[in-house]
Amino acid sequence: MVKILLAFPKRQWDMPFNAEMREELNSLGEVTWADFWERENSPEEYRALITAEKPDILITFWGSGKLTPEILGENPQLKYMCHISGTVRGQLDRECLKAGLLVTNWGGVISRTISEASLMMILASLRRVTEMTMGMHVRGEWPKERMRSLFERNVGLHGMGPIAQELVPLIRPFNVKLRAYSPNCPDHVFEKLGVERTTTLRELYAANDVISIHTGNTPENFHIVNAEILGAMQDGAVLVNTARGPIVDTEALVAELKTGRIYAALDVYEEEPLPADSPLRGLENCLLIPHKGGPTEDRLVDTGRLCIDNIRRYLAGEETVNQLTYERYATMT
Length: 333
Hints:
Layout: E1 3-8, H1 19-26, E2 30-35, H2 43-53, E3 57-60, H3 69-74, E4 80-83, H4 95-98, E5 102-104, H5 111-126, H6 129-137, E6 154-158, H7 162-171, E7 177-181, H8 187-193, E8 196-197, H9 201-207, E9 210-213, H10 227-231, E10 238-241, H11 250-258, E11 263-266, E12 286-288, H12 301-315, H13 326-329
Parallel strand pairs: 1-2, 1-3, 3-4, 4-5, 6-7, 6-9, 7-8, 9-10, 10-11, 11-12
């Protein structure tokens, strides 16, 4: 019988797996539920746990230890790591991928909740929620800020990956005109979604009332949203980033925000957690969220469902979904 080791904090077990799903997971093999938390347990204890259990499949999540080539070398039977979260940097040494370990993560299963967050942040920015909230709660004011609607706006998507594609149907009811900049996205995706292709990034930022960032965190995209691109934005335009912090030059963004000319809504940052003395803090034309775009707590079961389905695929000799590669690891944050 296949041996499966689940190793992350017990207080999190119910987040991706409800009672019915836990029963289903237990039916797939000999499953060990290990209460392990990297903040309280040492790397040596993680190594000992894996070596003692000798799992064929390892399930990891927030709080799991880090799998290293040394641990993998001592456990040649371990062939598949099913990671329930997104980035695996804290749970996996990159060299394990080169050694042939199969690794999957949650991939696009969280796209709809992040796109939902993007829509919320767009609306909140247009409605100037940060300024009004600060005025009502902190200064005891009856704010007079002038709000704007999303209806009939021009919306630009910086990137056309799974999250942007999920955002399109959510935003359609507002009768917006959608444009996107995504050089590597095939034409048929644009045609299917009814999105107009923009040929340059500067054109995208200059032509739209709202910009929502969904591009990848690649070396080429580091600070691709720089002072020049931000300066091309229209007065009163909104910039939303639920992708990755390094895509935007923070210093340039702060300088632009301090002019009061544009608005921003950020879920991700170049340095996380956001430092207490970050110049982004206190700017009332900037909505700040602590990297909570998705998945929401109630939708973590979607990631657990994917985990179980992927293990079923693996056991049946079928291809798993959302496989990570050595190259893709480098772009994760």
